[in-house]
Each structure stands twice: as structure tokens, then as C-alpha cells.
Amino acid sequence: MQKTIANITFVVRDYDEAIEFFTEKLDFDLVENTSLEPDQPGKRWVVVKPKGPPGCSLLLAKAIGEAQLSAVGNQSGGRVFLFLHTDDFRRDFKAMKTKGIRFLEDPRKEVYGTVAVFEDLYRNKWDLIEPSLAP
Hints:
Blueprint: E1 7-12, H1 15-25, E2 28-35, E3 44-50, E4 57-62, H2 65-71, E5 80-85, H3 89-98, E6 102-103, E7 108-110, E8 113-119, E9 125-131
Parallel strand pairs: 1-4, 5-9
Antiparallel strand pairs: 2-3, 3-4, 6-8, 7-8, 8-9
């Protein structure tokens, strides 16, 4: 049996600010934005994903309560949280910087590819990576 991870929950303060960030700054597609009213007032099913072939998506989940609010921006305890692969590092690095994405370092070459750490709208850390070709 083949299995894949379809969605990863990404806790947000506000649906609309997160949708704007992912679609405008990271150029993701908005896959779904469905209200769950009246059963769950204020709750929506919001899914975004990088453009391109099918793969893992982010389920944007609005934080409810102090415990969830404290996770916004700290979903991995300060470590790099997500890894965004690209087929053209220079193109995407330049486009992201132009759109105001904050990179925490200059691009660097590693055994696994070209990489730089950036922050999302809540200061979670991500890697932008152009993977190396197979050795």
C-alpha cells in the first residue's frame, strides 16, 4: 500500500493574512477556502500548496486558545520547520527577497544542494533548497 502525507497543519493567527502571505509572497496556490459555518463558527478549511505537481499541502488552522496561540511562529521550537524545494534557487531567492521575505543568511552550497534559511510571516524558519543532482 502506498502512503503519502497530504497536509501539514500550519497554525496561524488569521486566515486571511496567512492566505495573502502564502499566495502573494511565496506564490503558492490557494487550493481550498471553505467556511465550516454554521457547525463551527469562524472556522474554515484553508489549504495552500506550492505551484507545480501534486504534493504535500499546508492546512492553515486558526489558533484557538493560549496554547495554540503560543505555537504561532514557534511550531518547531526555533528549528527550521519546513523545506521548500525549488528547481531554480537564484530565481526564487531573488523573487522572494523582492517580495520582502527575510532571509537569515546568504545562500550556501551544501552536499545536498544550495540552501538559505528564511522566515515566514510568523517567523517560523524554512529552508529554500535547490537539491543537488543525485551523486
